[in-house]
Amino acid sequence: MGHAESGPGLDHALEHGLSADEYKRILEILGRAPSWSELGVFSVMWSEHCSYKNSIAQLKTLPRSGGRLLVEAGEENAGLVDIGDGLAVAFKIESHNHPSAVEPYQGAATGVGGIMRDVFTMGARPICSLNSLRFPAIGHETTTWLVDGIVRGIGDYGNCLGIPTVGGEVQFDAAYNGNPLVNAMTVGIVRHDATASAVAKGVGNPVFLVGASTGRDGIHGATFASVELSQESEEKRSSVQVGDPFMEKLLLEATLEMIQSGDLVGIQDMGAAGITCSCSEMSAKGQAGIRIHIERVPQRESGMSAYDVLLSESQERMLVVVEKGREDTVRRICQRWDIHCAHIGEVTDTGRFQVLHHGQLEVDIPSQVLVLGGGAPVYIREWAEPASFLAERAVDLSAVAPVEDLGEELLALLEHENVCSRRWIYRQYDHMIGASTEIRPGGDAGVVAVPGTAKRLAVTTDCNGRLVRLDPRQGAISAVAEAARNLACTGARPLAITNCLNFGNPMDPEIYWQFREAVAGMGEACRVLDTPVTGGNVSFYNESPHGAVHPTPVIGMVGLLEGVEPVPSAFRGPDELVLAAGRAAGILGGSLYLERRVGRQTGAIPLPDLELEKALQAFLASAAEEGLLRSAHDVSEGGLGVCLAEACILQEGRSMGCTVDLSPLNPQGIAADRLLFAETPGLVVLSALPEHRDRLQALAAECGLPLCELGSTGGERLVVEDLLDLSLHEVAERWWCTLERRLEA
Amino acid sequence: MKAGIVVFPGSNCDADARRALEAAGAQVHMLWHKEAVPDHLDLILVPGGFSYGDYLRTGAIAAAGPVMQSVREHARRGGLVLGICNGFQILCEAGMLPGALMVNQGLRFLCRDVHVKVDRLDTPFTQALDHPAVLRMPIAHHGGRYVCTADELQELEDERCVLFRYCDSEGRATDAANPNGSVHNIAGILGRKSRVLGMMPHPERAAAPGPAGEDGAILFRSLMGAVEALQAL
Q1: What is the CATH number of the domain that holds B53?
Q2: Angle between helices A728-744 and A639-649 in degrees, nearest 10
Q3: What average pLDDT is seen over chain A?
Q4: Could you give the ipTM of this predicted complex?
Q5: Active-site positions of A?
């Protein structure tokens, strides 16, 4: 063993982020002290980022199979869901929070690159991307720097690769001061019979490293992702990888060609923990061993040790296991695309991950002990319900005085940074490349056509962290319900979810309680709505010296439209019916209006009714399939008032007014401000042609869904009878132009 | 019409261009940048993308590649050439069109719909129009600000080589309607013999029903008609 004499001890293990117990287990497993390289391998493979050691026990409670799932959650690099006619959709969301906090441009760019590889390594061609971003409050000293770098990073990477960014969400909140969130999602399409698997098997099969050369960038990125951010984090910039989207484009085309050739045994991208993670996971999955030779890895700098090469997170690389005798296929394809293709090792029957450097054995570890589901540690942490939970719920909201001018308040909400248009951001992303984008960013969900078919996919990411902080279980249910509702508004039937669980330090019992509660809520909602979890990502330690971020379990959801014209969010023509599906409740807890009234985020949040959501989804999908809907838009941040205003102006350059009377929706006599500004889940504003009135009512009755008529479209004003009357010019100006003004200032 | 689409390693609008050309009835050959270009093509389309990652200067490496030598010869023989977005940048870098494309005035990538005004109906790219028109098409670029020398600008205007000009929906070429700061609101220019066109907007993304509209299809229909008319002679 290389450095056994002067090898690392417990102190070094602790410096590598391992615990004393974990070090003891390493000694037991090896029956000796580890080498430096082995310590590095254990430290990254047993880091939170790779092992999910503090989350997996909870994640196993989620519904992770069934429905149209073709692989179980966690089995492959991304989820795989059947969409009929031999086609499947592959999708996943992943975080890149800490890298983006210290190096926004590269952090966000490589986040996009990583999730793209997770999808195309399965043989799927990416057809669209989304991202879910959380920034510090507007006005915080880092906000414009973070927004500028992160948005450019996402844009430059995705634009160069040629994948449209069609949706997502952006929120600003002081809870993310010092720790922004960057979650990126990619969706791809593959034929069932053309998928690739992340497996190494077949003794003697050669192992290739394909793509970029390996440098010292990103060493210990996975470990860096698994600690809290601090003043010293600035010094961890070397833990941030550097992206090259042009190389990724070459790798994308070469990878799909290699998989289509049928000559591969398995393939996995190199993300966190680079060569180490791909070698140990692929060999563990194949119940085989793998042996590699460090000096055969193409290196971009000289003097790299085995440790450096093993832990490098250099981007745009793939580990490829080829059928023996078919090596020429891989070489020919890589030559065509001008990328490296190095034969670095072979599959063995030892069950061990072995690394040689100039003939010297540097690493010799059973693959199984390194991986999730094998020997990686699993912890259930202590939890405790925070005292603030019941206290916030008990706050008496009946005493909150209503605002005097409802119209002025609506205008103020429309220019709220968490309500107004995100156009300034999504225009920096190419959202039309592929010429398949049928509903662009800014609506309830993005919709893309699946080329060569009559199928369309609706995609969204959703999470209201304010609600999850106030009530982790119900807030997580709300996130799933809203994602499904957003898809349903376009006429899609939801298929499945991927999740990105952004939380603070799990060793804090109150954080672990938030995590447990949120996962429980998510599981409950996914079971009722029949949208199983295909996989995802956990990001703990999202804390700055100011404390933990809002618990933010982002839901990425994909739905299917089968030969159905997608329904837009905005009103389309005059003299059409305006209707509301669902029920008004008037509960202000967690709303932006309440925050504006009392100066903080508080209250018992409105509880989502999953049976109502199910009825609503069935109704919207059937109505879209029958061609009955002209538009559909759900109530979310800012409440019914904002929803109606947005329906008037969301179609850029063409506003359409409406005159409505909310009394049919309000038999219980909810106060006007609560009616307009409560963020009631399960409430949708629709428009339809008058001749479809009876059929819509019949359909709603069949689905057991309340549906009432509020008024009609037309004119250049938003009129809510007895409550407000606004010029659409003013409404549009506030909603479309605010973000640009505040971020460019 | 036999059309070739040049494919550089970083081209990413090639598939969209192919779909739009095939929908118009063209027979399409993909021209991999390392391979020889067949000499019987009526049109060569240089598509959008990031040909070589844009690391030196947008379009600069592509312009020096061997495939562009073939495109030049094709143009010299009187063949039609259409460069879209990155393809326009490459044609300028290759000296097939005057001027250059610089970083947008706003310094940011910009993806949105624009309107462009077209006055000339006597070109192979617009002959299917029956009157001067305002067309809606998407743009998606970081470096689309057209610049050239004063003499070149004078010549472009005198020879009526500005085929597309950014304008508002009413056809007014105002500053407000200029998305990137291009001189004289220039969105697309013709070579001297009207056989070569470079343009920043993406007609191939507006060639089928959808939110971008179908105004872009007019270009591909015009090209089909122009080639057929020539063959009928």
Answers
A1: 3.40.50.880
A2: 100
A3: 94
A4: 0.96
A5: 49, 96
